[in-house]
């Protein structure tokens, strides 16, 4: 994997990203196939986001829009309500209206080939945002986090919470065995496979040694998948696992969860089944995206961990890539080997993420001004 050193996700990283975006002035050169260059205020960037039901995607949309507008561009921001036909229609409309470039966070990474072919026919470049768009040659750039490493971090935090790894990631002499259940993301999201692969790379050795037992036997990603990453789907599956597998008095000790919304569904099912509040001890539950409701749960000792992915910096990289393309330049990639979408290896810029537990909420999220302490205490942004 060809990467330069990882971009810091905290504090000054945002300022550096914005400074880099400003270099040279927007619209100073023509994008390939677009003829004469346009001034920034003559350029419209279409931004397609999947849903507003997750605060993470609201933050992404807001950050991309703000940073583009700070550079003088017009922004056509659309949310699709997790409905594939709606996102397809929104992209068709952006192309018809003549948006100059598209930044797309796909609902289903395999469902946009027709729209991207149409964009290519109109010389409109496409940046795939966080979720890789698959099965299309017309994806020009990809910005995301190191998604397999996110999975490694999730698996590592689960093992640390159980005491099988110490704070430095070294195996301890704790023997277990611990009952663990595993959840995956939505199979139509390319990232779900990377998260799962990374997590399994660190968990599987402990399954093999007998220190972890997946009592349900549901150890494949197909069995663990959560359609559309929905909290209600995760809650129902956890309830079914408790009824079918833990009705003999045994307890769940840990749950691998790839996303905070899924984590909250899992926790609700556990609490409804008598875990916490003086009952059975709540298991170690992981997460991702540092959603404020889950950050409060972590601060309160209910959820164990989340993975913080600073969307301000991800937005900054998308904006940098868009500006470069609009100026007829190649956007800077730090990975040109990993992300094959089934038709091509898409040049990518990957950022790093951080495990957040109760111990580092302040340094990771408050000191970097991602949240205020009051927001953490209230569980509301």
TrEMBL record:
Keywords: Signal. Transmembrane segments: none annotated. CDD domains: PBP1_ChvE. Residues 45-330 form the Periplasmic binding protein domain. It is found in: Cell envelope. The keyword Lyase does not apply. Its main location: other. The keyword Amino-acid biosynthesis does not apply. This is Multiple monosaccharide ABC transporter substrate-binding protein. It comes from Kineococcus gynurae. The gene is chvE.
């Amino acid at each position: 994997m060809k990467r330069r050193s990882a971009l810091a996700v905290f504090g000054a990283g945002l300022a550096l990203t914005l400074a880099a975006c400003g270099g040279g002035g927007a619209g100073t050169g023509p994008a390939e196939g677009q003829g004469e260059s346009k001034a920034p205020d003559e350029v419209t960037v279409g931004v397609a986001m999947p849903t507003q039901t997750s605060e993470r995607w609201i933050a992404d949309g807001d950050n991309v829009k703000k940073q583009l507008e700070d550079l003088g561009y017009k922004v056509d921001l659309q949310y699709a309500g997790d409905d594939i036909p709606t996102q397809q229609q929104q992209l068709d409309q952006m192309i018809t209206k003549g948006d100059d470039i598209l930044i797309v966070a796909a609902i289903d990474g395999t469902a946009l080939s027709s729209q991207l072919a149409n964009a290519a026919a109109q010389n409109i470049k496409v940046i795939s945002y966080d979720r890789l768009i698959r099965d299309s040659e017309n994806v020009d750039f990809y910005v995301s986090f190191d998604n397999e490493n996110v999975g490694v971090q999730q698996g590592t935090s689960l093992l640390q919470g159980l005491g099988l790894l110490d704070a430095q990631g070294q195996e301890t002499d704790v023997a277990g065995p611990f009952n663990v259940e595993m959840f995956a993301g939505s199979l139509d999201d390319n990232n779900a496979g990377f998260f799962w692969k990374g997590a399994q790379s660190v968990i599987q050795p402990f399954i093999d040694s007998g220190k972890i037992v997946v009592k349900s036997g549901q150890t494949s990603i197909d069995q663990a998948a959560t359609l559309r990453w929905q909290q209600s789907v995760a809650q129902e599956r956890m309830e079914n696992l408790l009824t079918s597998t833990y009705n003999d008095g045994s307890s769940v000790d840990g749950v691998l969860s790839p996303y905070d919304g899924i984590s909250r569904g899992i926790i609700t099912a556990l609490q409804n089944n008598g875990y916490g509040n003086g009952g059975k001890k709540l298991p170690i539950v992981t997460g991702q995206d540092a959603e404020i409701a889950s950050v409060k749960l972590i601060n309160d000792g209910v959820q164990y961990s989340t993975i913080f992915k600073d969307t301000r910096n991800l937005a900054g990289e998308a904006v940098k890539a868009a500006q470069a393309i609009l100026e007829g330049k190649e956007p800077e990639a730090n990975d040109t080997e990993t992300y094959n979408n089934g038709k091509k290896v898409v040049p990518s810029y990957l950022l790093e993420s951080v495990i957040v537990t109760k111990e580092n909420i302040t340094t990771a999220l408050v000191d970097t001004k991602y949240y205020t302490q009051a927001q953490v205490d209230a569980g509301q942004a």
